[in-house]
Fold this protein.
Amino acid sequence: MARYLVLQLSQALLVVVFVTLVVAVMLRFSGDPAVAQFQGASAPTAEQLREIREALGLNQPFLVQYGHFLGGLFTGNLGTSFRGDTPVGSLIRDAMPPTLLLALCSLLISVAISLPLGVYSAVHRGGWADQLIRFVSLFGLSFPNFWLGIMLVLIFGVTLRWLPASGYETPASLVLPSVTLGLILTSTTVRLLRAALLDVLGSQYVTVARSKGLSERRVLYKHALRNTAIPVVTFIGLQFGGLIGGGVIVEQVFAWPGLGSLALQAIANRDYPVLQGTVTVLAIIVVLVNLLVDLSYGLFDPRVRME
Amino acid sequence: MKAFKSLLVTALLAAAGSSLAQGGTLTVATAQDPQSWDPIDTFLVAWGTVAHNLYDGLIIRTPDLKLQPGLATKWTSLNGNKTLRFTLRQGVKFHNGEPFNAGAVKFTFDRLLGPEGKKGPQQANYNSIKQVKVVGPYTVDFILSQADPVLLTKLAGYGAMIVPPRYIKEKGDAYFNSHPVGTGPFSFVSYKNGESIKLQAFKGYWGGAPKLAGVTYRFIEEPATRVAELQAGRVDIAAAIPVAQAATVKGNPNLTLQAVPSPTVQALRLNVSHGPTSDLRVRQALNHAVDRDAIIKSILQGYASPIASMQSSKSFGYDPNLKAYPYDPAKAKQLLQAAGVKPGTTVGIDFIGTDAVFREVAQAVAGYFQVLGLKPELKTYETNTFYSDIIPKNKTTNAYQMGWGGWTFDFDNTAYLLYRSGQFWNPDYKSKELDALLDKQHNLSDQKQRLTILRQIAKYTRDQAIDIPLYNQQDLWGVSKRVQGFRAPSDSLLRLNTVSVK
């Protein structure tokens, strides 16, 4: 177990370093942060650009800049934003809770809806409820999340005025963005759960269990569901990573001050330290969640041993 | 029960009364978080929209762009315009209680022109200032290295806002960035990155206490959400309403739409260094080909006005008699023929792809080019790449988007940077004649002479058809009817000290 963990963690570290390298290289191919300071509002002179580059440390060779970043990463110092002198660490610390909160709530919403629907759909396969659930989930899957978000804003924020349409102030602010993200995830989870469960229900050991005279209820909860856990948990784990990073558009629509908004802002400003820091943190979260998912397999299937 | 009811009513009335006495608060939504509140760090309009409540300049620009005394009560030119002497307002205090005086002015400009200013984009705007000298406790001299006709306007703008010396020395620049202190009508309460900044009325404001108790600015980048929050009544003033949503705002009984000409003009610049656009006749033909009025009417829904040079009618240097090339496709075809351009010749149009409105404009222009028998090729870029790589390195094809916000409302600022050879934004046009005109007005202080030369410059660029000037944009502001006394300014510098809410 310990060996497995060490191996996994060192792999994870390698992934994170590789991700930061790719980001650092790609960033430097796309526009000049010194020019981005002007945002087209005025014109920099060559002299001025040189001075800004110098002040931001951009005149150093790429490897030196990247080395600084890596060195800082291991000592917990992510540098300071090009916009003002705010430490990147404090920007990320502020943006982390909104993002985690949003991801967690969306996940809860999607699990709470998809679990009963998926199970019902598989058990009553072919029935009208199954057809309906499958249709609605396909429908849900086909919506782009920004569109769903804007529709929810118009209905619940503008027309009914039940909920705030944007911002990060009260618990009510959380409802619309997490429903938007959660619903998108729900559709996929329902379909996945249904397929996995059908697969298991058709397998031999279920037939054996049934032939032993076990009740249908017992077959389902004791034997079948447990075996669908691994693909579903894997999927949800992967999605959680996606929720953290992929909430970008939803964060944008709802003016949600999370990591996604921070990253977008940093891209627009070519704020290298902030973008590198944000991407690194996102990568670490995704890698850790996947590691947790791997570790959780042992809980569902005793045959899985971490060696 | 009855007693309880009347008690409740009294309590409610009292609450309403006290909130009236306090003036109530106002919520403004802008599209962007400037991320730094230090005047020398930024060039963002969104900064000005917030920070002109926190800070004052020596001079203040009114919503209709007139210059009036700010922290300076009067100014005179000495030494053949090489020295500007300012008499400062007395009895002014910063929000932290620190007194405003000549020392604060000197500190502000030493900081702007010194090493701290090098990190930001503002410094170059003020490099005509050689030195700021304290003459008396309330008198300062700006010693100039050359006459700078646009300096007074700049002093009403961004980097020249006066900052508190003691506060910055004690707390440091990084802290000042996120905890700004100025002499403006509102003082800083709190700031959350990517979310909001809260201000409260500064009772000791030299111009009289504001009518509002406080202002909250929320940063909402998505325009649809900004408009939704305005409709829902959770936002009182929303900046940058997209043209597509103008009708929604206008049609709402609780809202009004204010449209004001902005400093921003949109044009397609023509690359003279290669391809068919290196021929003057082709450039003139392309100018004749485009029906500006139709574009303004259909795509911008009338929220723009046609231009003949890269400036709006509000700009110093504007010439009402200078006319753009009239829409004349027949003449355009003739000119192309004379230039020997064969039908089917490719003409590239480069623009910023994320700008939904300009995308439509570019498509319309492409349609007009097609009418001439040309083969337009649309190419899109991301903003930063376009401005830092494609334009300055002369990687554009033939026609390319040039959106320009001449924030000083003086054609010099625009023309010099766009047309003077060797400038960052001018990768391809070189003309000794134009350079001479540009240089001549740049260091002149006689405004009459300057106006004449600026008009010559505008005419020259028109005759040479260096660009296809398209239109001057209007800024659209959505305003709730509970807001009283708000007039959207042309330069987006909101000062909310005279605004109140019902």
Notes: Chain A touches chain B through 57 residues (CB under 8 Å). The two ends of chain A are 6 Å apart (CA to CA). The mean pLDDT of chain A is 85. Residues 89 and 189 of chain A are 34 Å apart (CA to CA).
